[in-house]
């Protein structure tokens, strides 16, 4: 089995890369017509629909 431990430098570079990606994503979702903003809105709508479904299923279930 190979050693998968990151060196401190690799960890710092990876952390920096993830921070950069996060900043790009945050900037992209601020633009209403971007693909990221549209995908986020769709995911939020789907989540809300699912949440409402389970809420209603619980609310109208026969709980004894």
Describe this structure in words.
There is one protein chain. The chain is mostly helical and 64 residues long. The protein has 2 helices and no strands. The longest helix is centred in the last third of the chain and has 25 residues. It is flat, with a radius of gyration of 20 Å.
Which labels suit this protein?
64 residues, mainly alpha, 2 helices
User: From the structure provided, what is the oligomeric state, counting identical versus distinct chains?
Assistant: single chain
Q: What is the succession of H and E elements?
A: HH
Low-confidence stretches: none
Shape: flat
Specify the structural class.
mainly alpha
Note the main sheet: none
> How many angstroms does the end-to-end distance come to?
54 Å
The percentage of residues in β strands lies in: under 5%
Gyration radius from CA atoms, angstroms: 20 Å
Please give the count of helices.
Answer: 2
Estimate the helix proportion, in percent.
over 70%
Can you give the mean pLDDT? 93
Number of strands: 0
Question: Brief overview, please?
Answer:
By secondary structure, this protein is mainly alpha-helical.
Secondary-structure map with pairings?
Layout: H1 8-29, H2 35-59
